[in-house]
Amino acid sequence: MHTVEAHTVIATEVNRSKFIAHLVPIADYEGLQEKLKKEHPKANHVVYALRYLNAFDQVVENSSDDGEPKGCAGVPALNVMRGEALINCAVLIVRYFGGIKLGTGGMARAYALAVKEVLKVADMIVYEKKIVYAFVTGYSTIDKTLHTLKQCGIVQIERKFETNQVDWKIRASKEKIEQYKKRSSS
Asked: What is the mean pLDDT of residues 64-69?
């Protein structure tokens, strides 16, 4: 499975209709459709498709045709995401009608093409499920702890400085956390 960490945008044109595809991490999805509708008031539709893992590691999918004929916009976009094994991301496609009717098949192909085009330029990363690990150290071992975390490739770090100790919370894959535990105990 793959995911994205950054917002990527690309425009595609099919029979004078313009399709602007936005690929975003799922955390950036909330409210983006409304924002795009405000940014593009003359656009006819803002279609979306999304896939993410819920708390039980189940894939949750959703899509919207936003007024396009049923199943001609959101579902083709979602199918491309499924085919590329994308997770924890969403794609939103702004469509400006170009005056030539595409038909239902042409419309489905155009929306799928818009998603494929944005995937070509997006920085895809391999999806790793991350867990949180909390631990405590003394002040004298802060530098050593940071060095060990860096060696293990752990970059999501929170520290809270208490009176006589440092409370740490790290977020990484299970493998990286196990590697850190092994290195820090030796």
From this structure: 89
Q: Which DSSP string corresponds to the chain? A: -EEESS-EEEEEEETTEEEEEEEEEGGGTTTHHHHHHHH-TT-SEEEEEEEEE-TTS-EEEEEE-TTSSTTSSHHHHHHHHHHTTB-SEEEEEEEE--SS--HHHHHHHHHHHHHHHHHHHS-EEE---EEEEEEEE-GGGHHHHHHHHHHTT--EEEEEE-SS-EEEEEEEEHHHHHHHHHHHH-
Report the range out of 3-7, 20-24, 134-138, 170-174 with the highest average pLDDT: 20-24
Beta bridge partners of 25: 89
**Model pTM above 0.85:** no
- pLDDT value of position 163: 87
**28-57 pLDDT, tens per residue?**
898 888 899 999 999 889 999 999 988 788
93 CA to centre of own chain: 15
Using CA atoms, how far residue 179 sits from 5, 31, 148, 149, 175, in Å, is 24, 38, 10, 9, 6
In DSSP terms, 18 is beta-bridged to 13, 96
Cβ–Cβ under 8 Å, residues 17 and 96: yes
